[in-house]
């Protein structure tokens, strides 16, 4: 599975880029229209009649540029809906004009610096969301925001984090953070609220109403982002409390709204977000898929990082285990994709049964009891990186089975609602790092995703970052986001009897009805 | 002559005011659109489809207001061109929602606090433009701005001045400067540039190109105005370097663009700015009328203030002088309107002749020589406030005559250009404090303004302040300003032979051709 980044290839966006080179005719006694209005009128011509406003800082910088640039200069614009602000000016072709794309993750924040003139990716980096100090998840942070000064603290943590890492990233490219005029950030609804300093209280309370849906363009310094004084940040809109800008960015980057065929996009995490549709319609839903898929619950679970088991193979005859870890070092733990691989291989080796229970006879030699719960030794003390055995208990397994069953049920429910079968899907896109690592064969084996031809599956990588990048490089992108937002129908997952019946059926491996998974060779 | 303020009468503006009371329906599971978007959608309904954006600070303030206001709240908006920003929210009818009108004078700055909810004027105050410390006039300040840090210093002086006096004014009304959400400022092109921190260098150099024509709406804090965090300031546009926002504000407040009949508007100062037109067309010009009209040149000249002679009567028989001073105290000096009165009375008493020369025989007893120039004792040492005689020299008189001749010539040239006679003017509006004090009879007597029926003359008072007030109270006003700006034809005064001939003819009192001033009884 390869990461789709065809949208950000150098030069692909120059046609409708935010950077425009204009020549300003010198004023005369016959035409002494003010300098600012001369610049605007030139820009309006080159930008298909977009209405241009000029930032105060640019107004102040203009005299120098007009002198040094001899009438020609590069203009950096940013905006939406037929309107753009002139946020920066530079002498013609003086160097890269960087824009910063931000994937505002709850756990990890990823930054990407792109040259808005050429479309080239300059550099990427990532850092732990500093709000993690206050609470590991959305819920904890929202509760913290209810305290006096809590929201301000959370806001300032993330703004400082982005500013500092952004400055480092710029420096690594020989640039200053003051050279960054445009920022685009995509995150879930709660993270977006915390970035803005908007009250997230109602996001987690009935009727789950965000404070704001479409924050649009803001001045960076108004939210404490320390880039150019005139820099603007585009914050992706949300559809609702449980359907955020990260997913809209994902839909944008998946291109599914440009296609005749129906595709599906799944963002897997604690919350599974699912979109199905094509150029004419979009249906979305989100539901708790369980934290097991993030590798966050099992004792041996960890985020993808050095020493994380990402691939497991078990010889069905000898039941010998073989691992592949990130970085090729001794195992430290197991990441989400590794857990799915592990479960699939345990099942194919007959070590867990159709109901997801460890089979004592088949697990012999590796089975112990931990607080009266059976557990499987995956990596022995000697073979692990830290001298502690890595264990996978029946409880971990139950949790994974619930998660995969929930995921499958959500997928089944949304396709059912729009009257489609899984086989009607031309593409099944999986977003996120998770999507880049999981082996679709294993995910199919445990019945987490439908049994479609492997060519249907596509890992899109970091679609939040990709969508944010598109906003920086294509003038049309923000309009597309608005269209996507308006087009999308959000379906509340009704956890009714029908859903529960589907869920119960999906709690088998791969499913109560094995005919749904013809490719899975169930061990006899 | 009365000050026209019919436009700012309480309640006159409630229909299209910037303050709107809206009720926000509570969200439900069926409609959980975000709070901000609920507010916007209500506002768009009450504001004839205006596109509403919400300031970040308002977004943060909303939760509290939504709780205390029980769904109903007052919204403060400000904007143009079908777009407005929601800059403030307050509980329903909680008190005045103040806006600040600013007359950004080169010498004096006048502030007016109005309640944007009711249209009521709360209070006014004024202060010396603190940039006066650096240079008394536009020219000196523009030169100072060329020095390193000079522009920043001038910018910060005026911003601090307005902030401090604005805070005092608010306090005097029992309000905080943080309660001020909307500011409107009108000044000449140079003062506007200095308020923005925009380079004024080219304003005084060929081809006299301003840096910006239409600054529009800015965040107050971006230019150092210390009001509500989200407060916006509307800065009146200019037509060119010598035709500023103060005059556009004047045209707005004069209502001349709403009338079928042709009117004239004159703003008298060092620079005379003249507009003629009606609802279909507007022609404008500006020219140096000479500082004599401001009372700034004669040794006894002063700005209108306590002790300034504002009225002079000379008995044509006894040639005894009678004065009226501002505040009714002993004379300290003479203001611009007093000088005109003085010259007219001297002429009617036969003490100056048709050529504007002191008549020694008629001036007997009051005439002395000062540096070999004849001078008239207007107030003796004993009768003056400071024990020094107030003198009016032949040089002062010459200067006044040149000024009045320039003024009349400018008026004649512009009416001539549009093919009108003075008698075609339905109204002759005089803007500024000067206009409120001069006696049109005296101004006609010396031939400074045309000999029209007295009912034609109207003193409009501080039209900059009035225009700025209209922007705060009427949503349509900014659109009118734009229309005025687009409609206006600016005529460069061509100081050619024809102009010089007219000027020479106007250097007589009242004029070489006395038939032009039938009402003036020329002493034999």
From TrEMBL, chains A, B:
Residue ranges crossing the lipid bilayer per the database entry: none
Tell me which InterPro entries the record gives: Corrinoid_activation_enz, Raco-like_middle, Raco-like_middle_sf, RACo_C, RACo_linker
Q: Per its UniProt record, what Gene3D superfamilies does this chain match?
A: 3.10.20.880, Domain of unknown function (DUF4445) (3.30.420.480)
Q: Highest taxon of the source?
A: Bacteria
RACo-like middle region domain mapped to chain residues = 99-256
One Pfam family name from the record? Answer: Raco_middle
- UniProt name for this protein: Uncharacterized 2Fe-2 and 4Fe-4S clusters-containing protein, contains DUF4445 domain
* Organism this protein belongs to: Desulfatibacillum alkenivorans DSM 16219
């Amino acid at each position: 599975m390869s990461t789709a980044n065809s949208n950000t290839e150098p030069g692909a966006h120059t046609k409708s880029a935010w950077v425009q080179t204009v020549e300003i005719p010198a004023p005369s006694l016959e035409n002494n229209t003010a300098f600012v209005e001369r610049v605007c009128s030139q820009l309006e011509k080159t930008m298909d009649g977009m209405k241009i406003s000029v930032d105060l800082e640019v107004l102040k910088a203009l005299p120098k540029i007009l002198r040094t640039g001899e009438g020609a200069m590069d203009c950096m614009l940013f905006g939406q809906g037929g309107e753009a602000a002139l946020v920066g000016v530079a002498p013609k072709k003086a160097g890269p004009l960087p824009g910063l794309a931000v994937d505002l993750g709850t756990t990890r924040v990823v930054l990407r610096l792109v040259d808005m003139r050429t479309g080239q990716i300059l550099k990427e980096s990532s850092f732990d969301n500093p709000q993690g100090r206050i609470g590991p998840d959305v819920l904890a942070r929202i509760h913290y925001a209810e305290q006096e000064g809590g929201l301000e603290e959370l806001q300032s943590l993330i703004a400082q984090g982005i500013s500092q890492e952004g400055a480092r990233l710029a420096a690594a490219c020989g640039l200053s953070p003051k050279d960054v005029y445009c920022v685009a950030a995509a995150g879930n609804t709660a993270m977006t609220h915390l970035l803005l300093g908007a009250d997230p209280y109602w996001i987690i309370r009935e009727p789950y109403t965000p404070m704001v849906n479409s924050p649009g363009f803001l001045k960076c310094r108004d939210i404490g982002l320390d880039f150019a004084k005139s820099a603007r940040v585009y914050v992706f809109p949300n559809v609702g409390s449980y359907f955020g800008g990260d997913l809209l960015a994902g839909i944008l980057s998946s291109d599914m709204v440009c296609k005749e065929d129906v595709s599906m996009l799944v963002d897997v995490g604690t919350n599974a977000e699912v979109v199905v549709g094509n150029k004419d319609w979009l249906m979305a839903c989100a539901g708790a898929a369980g934290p097991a898929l993030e590798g966050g619950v099992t004792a041996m679970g960890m985020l993808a990082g050095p020493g994380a088991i990402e691939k497991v193979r078990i010889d069905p005859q000898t039941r010998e285990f073989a691992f592949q870890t990130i970085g090729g070092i001794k195992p430290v733990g197991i990441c989400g994709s590794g857990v799915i691989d592990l479960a699939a291989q345990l099942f194919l080796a007959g070590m867990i049964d159709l109901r997801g229970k460890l089979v004592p006879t088949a697990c012999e030699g590796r089975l112990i009891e931990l607080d009266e719960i059976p557990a499987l030794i995956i990596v022995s003390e000697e073979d692990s990186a830290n001298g502690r055995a890595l264990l996978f208990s029946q409880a971990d397994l139950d949790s994974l089975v619930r998660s995969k069953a929930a995921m499958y049920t959500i997928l089944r429910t949304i396709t059912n609602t729009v009257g489609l079968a899984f086989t009607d899907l031309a593409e099944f896109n999986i977003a996120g790092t998770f999507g880049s690592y999981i082996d679709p064969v294993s995910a199919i084996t445990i019945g987490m995703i439908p049994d479609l031809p492997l060519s249907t599956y596509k890992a899109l990588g970091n679609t939040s970052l990709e969508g944010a990048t598109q906003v920086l490089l294509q003038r049309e992108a923000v309009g597309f986001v608005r269209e996507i937002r308006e087009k999308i129908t959000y379906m509340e997952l009704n956890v009714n009897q029908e859903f529960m019946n589907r869920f119960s059926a999906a709690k088998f491996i791969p499913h109560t009805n094995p005919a749904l998974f013809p490719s899975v060779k169930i061990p006899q």
